[in-house]
Each structure stands twice: as structure tokens, then as C-alpha cells.
Amino acid sequence: EWVYLNGEFKPYDEACLSVEDRGFLFADGIYEVIYVHRGRAFRMEDHLARLQRSAAAVRLELPRPAADLEAAAGALTARNGLEAEEATVYLELTRGSAPRQHAFPAQPRPTLLMIARKAHRPEPEKLERGVSVITVPDERWHWCHVKSVGLLPNVLAKQQAVESGAFEAVFVRDGRVTEGSSTNLFAVFDGVLWTHPADRWILGGVTRSVVLELAGRLEITVREEAVEASRLGRADELFLTGTTTTVLPVVRVDGRAVGSGEPGPLTRRLQEAYLQELE
Ligand code: PDD
């Protein structure tokens, strides 16, 4: 297995990072997760645009042009023999290594890492029958639109979900549902598709944008508005979206059935349309 580190391809076991990399010490870094199908990166331009926005927000500069990153991601999946498969590329950019102090180093040398792996979509049974979620307080920072590697609240929330037998933890901030720990959430009420607006309280998912596009094409009415947590359990349908999650029906919230307890019709249509789009 090969990884890409600062412009070079290295065998996994030989790729080394400094013990004082600021990604490790301060979570001073950002990332992307990109889906690559048969060597073709899905919506690469959206991922690169978001990477640029995250970088700008935290005053990082991409060490090389976006086009180079795209080529490197392709080359890395090929080197790992994944060009005929479904793969994900994890890309991380940190402010590099320097003696530990909070302020930026005078001459930062960013670390840029890419790892390519076989993709793991949710099991067919989950995509077919749906999953359960729990709700948890959203105790993250105020810049959720930045794809920061500071994911401790997300990690703790997901672990809580796993320990309670649920697939995902859905965050609630000020009485409103924001998103999942690594997914966006959609709800259907009376035939209208609701999802939180892409503001600073969520990570505007690439999958979320594609689903909104597909909803437009399928003439489904959309409201980019947060759902009150108290109404979540009364939604007719719920589903999660994300690069690795695709479109995943949610059939239980905090142990109570959603709608009929089975994936709903709009969820199905959008799921089918999305899976076709991936091909
Ligand atoms: N997570 N919201 C959060 C908090 C996320 O971390 C993610 C992605 C999403 C969905 O974004 P997209 O559709 O662009 O994947 C929403 C990635 C996959 C991860 O951390 O592994």
C-alpha cells in the first residue's frame, strides 16, 4: 500500500510525520474524503473548492495547485490497485511541524497527506432497510462549515451511537437539528424535503448538494431550513447523506419508529437517483 506525502509516493510503512506536526499537536489542519469510482473521482471540483474554502478559513495555503492534487489522487488510487474498484481518498493538510507553540510558525511548511483505500459503503441491508440514529447535544465549535480535523466531539458522538446500537448520532443545537457526526440529515414532512441550510452550523456536504440537485430534477420541493428537534420523531421520512454513507434511510430516532418504520418513497427515489449518479 502506498500513500502520498508532501509530493512523494511512499510505501505506507515508510511514510513518516514529525512528532511535532501541528495536525497531531493542535488539530491544526483540514481534510477531505473523496469517493473514487473506477479511477474517476466523484465531484472532485466540489471537494477541491471546499478544501480551498476550509484552507482559507484557517489561513492555510494549498502547497500545490488543485489540479496537481487531483492528478496525485488518481495516481495514488492506481498505485494501490484500486482503479477498477470503489475507493476513497482521504486528504489532510496541516500547518506542518514546528517546536510546539500556539502561534503559527514563522515559516510554515504544511504537511499534505493522502491515503487511498477501498471504499466501504453501508451494507446492502442497511441501505435497503434503514438504520437508527440517536440525538445528542451539538457541542462543537461555531465553524462547522470548515472541514477541520478537530473531530473529538464528532468521535464522542459517534461512539455513543455505536454503544447504543445506532448507526449515527444526530446533533441538536438550540433546539434544532443540525447534522450527523459525519453525515448530513434530510427530513420529509408532507412531501417537502427539509435540510439544514449550509451555514456555519453544518458541514455543507458534497453529497448534500448532489441530493438537492437531484431533488430539483425530480421536482421535489425543498426547504433549506433547520428542523426543530421536537418534530424530528414526527417526520414522515428521514435519511442521512455523506461520501461513504451515500443516501441512507433512517427508520428509528432515539428508539422510536420514523413514519411507517420503513424507508419512505422520497428517500427511495433520491437513493436510487444518487446511486445512479455515482456510476
Ligand atoms: N464526513 N457532516 C459532517 C460533520 C461530515 O464530517 C461529513 C463528511 C458530512 C458529509 O459530507 P460529504 O457529503 O461531503 O461527505 C457532513 C466525512 C465523510 C468523514 O469525516 O469521513
Automatic annotation (TrEMBL):
An example of a GO molecular function for this protein is: transaminase activity
Superkingdom, taxonomy of origin: Bacteria
Please tell me whether the keyword Lipid biosynthesis is annotated for this protein. Answer: no
Q: Could you say which cofactors this protein requires? A: pyridoxal 5'-phosphate
Q: Which Pfam families match?
A: Aminotran_4
The signal peptide here is: none
Known PANTHER family for this protein? AMINO-ACID AMINOTRANSFERASE, D-ALANINE AMINOTRANSFERASE
The name this protein carries in UniProt is: D-alanine aminotransferase
